[in-house]
Automatic annotation (TrEMBL):
PANTHER family: DTDP-D-GLUCOSE 4,6-DEHYDRATASE-RELATED. Residues 13-284 form the 3-beta hydroxysteroid dehydrogenase/isomerase domain. It comes from the Eukaryota. The lineage of its organism: Eukaryota, Fungi, Dikarya, Ascomycota, Pezizomycotina. Pfam families: 3Beta_HSD. It comes from Aspergillus lucknowensis. This is 3-beta hydroxysteroid dehydrogenase/isomerase domain-containing protein. Coiled coil: none annotated. InterPro entries: 3Beta_OHSteriod_DH/Estase, NAD(P)-bd_dom_sf.
Length: 371
């Protein structure tokens, strides 16, 4: 028996469309649906562009209701991929609220008003269930979202509030079969081509010959996800929502109103990943050359770094080394993805080693000696 054709995704609106994750989501959409009309809104439209006449880039601030309404009316999307988010470590706390929380409200109101939207896929974070002090081991989606005082990270508090708003909008807040259907993708640490954040920093460290330094004992398993696999998960969720639209919510394994952990289903030791990146840059680290810095020493260094940068910049800059970053690299963070496998049919198609090779190759070809 032949499978029924997939639902058409387009027209598509993608927020933060010039970001790392969105670049790959757009690539997957175009590969699957070449004639799809895609409208991207972002505050920086000069990076990560696709040279395709069907992709329209709009200089837009999601924290502005007027901007969002204007693009929503222009796009009249069927599917929305909401990925817009300030950089995790660089933005001020005020940006987390205005972009993540206020931006979601603007998006939901505009979507309800335009009347064309059937599916909204929200890119959230697994950080909403972790305090960055406690190990996260084989975590499932039914773990409670953390709130203050347990959760101190402004970014994750804002992301949790955004999840709540999008959750409340599912089926127009009730059982409306024809209301907008929503779900959340919660990725682990994503890496891949165009990742100038986490992976870009790892490549820079490797090129500087500093990958031999390790914080903590290095025995902390970590989940990563190659960005192409993460983009696949977004499209799977979109198709599942579109198939569910107009139908009663099933009693078992619903898609709408749910969140899904996404990983490569292959945890690595955190510092083994860093050294695998280094090896691909041509700067391998021998076991006997590894320099282990105790976690407590790293935390002390992070505190000192934070204090010095704060004093010099008057609080306007974020240091390269922070206590949060030290904890991030020394905790266990693994996620269970059985739900995404069962409900979405998600399977990572690019393995960890291949993903690292592809990613570092892109950096070596596109960033020269400055990455």
């Amino acid at each position: 028996m032949s499978k029924s054709p997939k639902s058409k995704l387009g027209p598509v609106l993608i927020t933060g469309g010039n970001g790392f994750t969105s670049y790959h989501i757009i690539a997957k959409i175009l590969a699957e649906e070449p004639d799809c009309v895609i409208h991207s809104l972002d505050v920086n439209i000069d990076r990560n562009r696709h040279a395709n006449s069907n992709v329209h880039y709009h200089l837009t601030d999601i924290s502005s209701a007027e901007d969002v309404n204007r693009i929503m009316e222009l796009a009249k999307p069927v599917t929305i991929f909401h990925t817009a988010s300030p950089e995790f470590s660089d933005a001020p706390v005020s940006a987390y609220r205005s972009i993540i929380v206020d931006g979601v409200q603007h998006l939901l109101k505009a979507a309800a008003k335009v009347g064309s939207v059937r599916a909204l896929i929200n890119t959230s974070t697994s950080g909403v269930i972790n305090d960055n002090h406690t190990d996260l081991i084989d975590a499932t989606e039914d773990m409670p979202i953390l709130r203050p005082p347990q959760q101190q990270r402004a970014y994750c508090i804002a992301k949790a509030d955004a999840e709540d708003a999008i959750q409340a909008a599912n089926r127009n807040g009730g059982t409306d079969d024809h209301g907008i259907l929503t779900c959340h993708i919660r990725p682990c640490l994503a890496f891949g081509e165009h990742d100038v954040g986490a992976l870009g920093k790892m490549v820079a460290v490797a090129r500087q010959g500093r990958s031999r330094f390790q914080m903590g004992n290095g025995q902390n398993p970590y989940d990563f996800v190659y960005i192409g696999n993460l983009a696949d998960a977004h499209l799977l969720a979109a198709h599942a929502l579109l198939e569910a639209w107009g139908k009663p919510r099933p009693a078992t394994d619903p898609v709408d109103g749910e969140c899904f952990n996404i990983t490569n289903d292959d945890p690595w030791l955190f510092w083994d990943f860093q050294r695998a990146v280094a090896a691909q840059t041509g700067n391998p680290v021998r076991t006997e050359d590894i320099v282990v810095i105790p976690k407590w020493v790293g935390l002390a260094m992070g505190f000192l770094s934070e204090w010095i940068v704060w004093a010099i910049s008057g609080g306007s800059r974020v240091p390269n080394m922070t206590r949060e970053g030290i904890r991030f690299s020394t905790l266990i963070r693994t996620l269970n993805i059985n739900k995404a496998k069962r409900v979405l049919g998600y399977r990572p198609t690019v393995g960890m080693q291949e993903g690292i090779e592809r990613s570092v190759r892109w950096f070596m070809e596109h960033t020269g000696d400055e990455a």
